[in-house]
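Lab notes, practical 5.
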Amino acid sequence: MKGAPLNAAAMMYAKVVGFAAGIVIARVIGATQYGMINVARSVLESCSIVSPLGLDLAMQRHLGSASEHLAARLGQLRVFRLIAFGIAVIPPLLAATGFSSYVEESIYRYPDFASVLLVTLIALPFATDIAVLGGAYRGVLNPAPFMLANFVVQPTVRLIIMGLLFVLGYRLWAVVVAMSASYIISWAVLAFLAHKDMSARDTDDRLDWIEIRSVLRYAPCLGASLIFVVWIRSADCLFLGYFGSARDVGQYAAILTIAQLIGLVGEALGQTLGPRVALRYRNNDLAAMEYLLAENIRRMTLLSAPIFAAILFWGDRIDLVLGPTFEVDTRVVALVSARIFLQTIFGYSGFALSMTGWHARETVLLGCGFLLSVVLCSVLVPPLGQLGAALASFVTMSMINLVRCAVVLRMFKIRIVGASVATTTVLAVTTAGFVWLLLRAVDTRTLAFTVLEAAVFLVLFAGTAWRLLITDQDRDYIFALFGPFRGLVRIGR
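Output from the prediction step:
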């Protein structure tokens, strides 16, 4: 759990700032342009997963599995960074030479989409190097610099630049320029820190090219897993953008923005899980590996289930915040939030395969999931629109996680999902449903009353969970998590 409080604070800050910025952007530019920006961002995210060639994950395994060779392996990092950065330069060059115009004319027929896509893709090389450096920092069990650059500097810079451009009268371009500029500036910060932290000292300057080639051989397989994960997550928006309108994508992206709150704190728990799993497996300690994975899922569920339940019952009211152009279907909200909940609590369970030498099986599993996602989106999105996209993504995510748990159980004889996961989820949904039914007769469907209902539910759930679900170790961790904030309160006094 080293560094978990800082990780949690940084990721919470990024999500809160991103959530607030998303609300402002949606209100300022409307559903149509909001949808176009999210399609371009989905393209950037898809490319930024391919361009590191799996080196972001490979660095976690390479640096985390042999601490005795750490200094020599840090010397190899600059080679991996140069390779990934060179690959990442290709898409923006293609966009600049006319490919973005082809995309606008043939696939996403939105006004000015070619220019939006080009400016967005300028960020790709910098996003790629951030990913590789992030993997290296996680590999040495010191994710703090990466968390600072990626989850504090980047959203802050984006918000500041976007706000200044809004004041100057720009709308769509304020968002696009701010996004690319934030990647470049956060990369500069992280590269500066890495130059101090990751420089190999007191080692032979000669590189072990046999080891470098070994990493480059297995890295793409690890990367394929991550590529499939991101493509699975992006398929619904990309297919909806092709078969539907930009307005459909904008409304759907707004639901996704709200649903991202489900992982507000929980995702911070897995920042160093990969190298720790690799080390336990290397030591042939399957019991410790099982405990790591099972505890991660249990705690992720404790932190995520109440937010999931709140969005499940009150998430369809986003129009109260974003405006009437964001009136959404309750069924779409339910499916999207359920998918994000599964994605959050099982997000790091793939380390059971990818960090133990069985990355090929993880890749095959996710590849099959990606094909299923493409087939389901092709069949369901044209007739059902947003509902079809949400249903396709939910079914795909459910299938992947069920099969993965079965594979891990069969291979290692370890059970990474306990009964507490179901108990916590049922308690959260039941409590939220009780509050929703209890106050339904007097519900005025205003923003203030919606906040009141959600607050009543969260207080009831927190009290019940504190007594029934949270262990003494969890309580100690919670106190440690909020320790820095208690110090700030004392200073304020």
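Observations recorded by the TA: Residues 4-50 form the longest helix (47 residues). The chain has a mean pLDDT of 85.
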